[in-house]
Amino acid sequence: MAENSLSSASITSNLETRFMGQRVIYFPSLTSTMAVAKQEAQQGAAEGTVIIAGEQTSGKGRMKRTWVSPKGSIALSIILYPSVVYLPSLIMVASLAVTHTIEAVTDLKSQVKWPNDVLINGRKVCGILIESQVTGNKVDYAIIGIGLNVNLKVSDFAEILPFATSLSDELGKSVSLLEVTRRLLVEIERLYLTLPAEESIYQEWRESLVTLGRKVRVRWGDTTYQGLAESVAKDGSLLLRHSDGSLTKIVAGDVTLGD
Ligand code: BTN
User: Fold this and answer.
1) 76 lines ligand 1 (CB under 6 A)
2) 38, 60, 124, 185, best to mutate for ligand 1 pocket (most atoms within 8 Å of CB)
3) Which ligand 1 atom is nearest residue 60's CA?
């Protein structure tokens, strides 16, 4: 039987990290881990503090959407204080940590859909939300929010059924929430600590993207761009080639994949 209950102690106990997840605040049920993480960060919580919920009643997605996070999913937010130059790399850290964790725990292969969805067989298994507050050139805090569908039957949730999947749906059996959570924290710390090194994770992130080389539609606010997803820049933005040959650099948006 896969371990399906979490507690602060079970997550932190002998966790092989220097600081990531060394302090964990667990709530069986919470509106959104992002809100609590923001309060904690404003009070100067230690770097790597994790807010995690058994379920969220008002989970927050990108672009003002709600995020469905019932029991059986992982909903966590991590507080970081990176240098401003590493801020664009946090999405690379988070999404690669998720793909590595999924593969290590389940053997399933996953891909990243720019900017920050993780897909298995074309369906979304994980969403990532990064919020930060910057004053001048200083990051007051950054929060990585990760919502991972682990043990849930997506067919029970009509609102996500058309495009989502879960690890248990893909595997046909449940997965240890505890193992996934602990592995994720180890991976996030490992990748986060590589950021100052010459060898950045940009290349690996670029290679993990399903988006590149595909015709895409990118919606950002009221604007929709169409073109070929040619590349990504080191700052994480998408380079979109239009049919007239021009290039647009897009920093954020919602992508629909074509051929
Ligand atoms: C997306 O729209 O794809 C991003 C979803 C991010 C969801 C996570 S779950 C943990 C954290 N708390 C929230 O309320 N949202 C993020």
Assistant:
1) yes
2) 60
3) 14
- Residue 242 Cα to ligand 1 middle (Å): 31
Ligand 1 pocket, 70 CB below 6 A? no
Rounded to an integer, what distance in angstroms lies between the CA atom of residue 167 and that of residue 120?
Answer: 9
Is there a contact between 126 and 146 (Cβ–Cβ < 8 Å)?
Answer: yes
Contact between 15 and 182 under an 8 Å Cβ cutoff? The reply is: yes
Counting Cβ atoms within 10 Å, is residue 187 exposed (0-12), middle (13-18) or buried (19+)? buried
User: From the CA of 53, how far away is ligand 1's center (Å)?
Assistant: 11
pLDDT in tens, the chain (259 residues): 455 679 999 999 999 999 999 999 999 999 999 999 999 999 999 999 999 999 999 999 998 899 999 999 999 999 999 999 999 999 999 999 999 999 999 999 999 999 989 999 999 999 999 999 999 999 999 999 999 999 999 999 999 999 999 999 999 999 999 999 999 999 999 999 999 986 679 999 999 999 999 999 999 888 999 999 999 999 999 999 999 999 999 998 999 988 6
- Quote the tokens at residue 258: 């074509």
**Do the beta carbons of residue 208 and residue 117 sit within 8 Å?**
no
